[in-house]
Structures are given as C-alpha cells and as structure tokens.
TrEMBL record:
Highest taxon listed in the record's lineage: Bacteria
Keyword terms: Cytoplasm, Translation regulation
Organism: Marinobacter zhejiangensis
Pfam families according to UniProt: RMF
Name used for this protein in its record: Ribosome modulation factor
GO biological process: regulation of translation
Length: 69
C-alpha cells in the first residue's frame, strides 16, 4: 500500500476519513467539528461531508417537488 511516511496518510486513511465525513453530515454534525489533523486528511473528511450535504439538499428538493405535484 502506498504511504507517505512524512505526512502520515495513505489511501485507506483518506477513504476512511471520507466515509466518516459523509456519515457525520448525514447525522447533522457541523463541518467545523472535523476530528482530523493534517490538511490532506481534513480535505478528504470535508469532501465526504460536502457530498453528503449535497445529497441531503437534493433529496429535500425532490421531496418538496413530490409534495407539490
């Protein structure tokens, strides 16, 4: 597995951070509460958080339109 020893992250760590960020947004956790340190891992967590937040907005809009129709 590729690992950057200087930065302390690898692909598995970034995937885990992404999944945890996604779950955090689904549970309503604030973006500012990211538990990670290090720019790259924080970016992965935030990417997951943002993706889940976008899905939630999309689903809310779909639900609104279905109620109107």
């Amino acid at each position: 597995m590729a690992r950057d020893v200087k930065l302390g992250w690898d692909v598995e760590a970034l995937n885990k951070a992404y999944r945890q960020g996604y779950m955090a947004a689904e549970m309503g956790m604030a973006r500012e509460r990211c538990p990670y340190r290090g720019d790259v891992v924080i970016a992965a967590w935030e990417a997951g958080w943002e993706d889940a937040a976008a899905v939630a907005v999309e689903n809310a809009a779909d639900d609104l339109f279905s109620r109107i129709a």
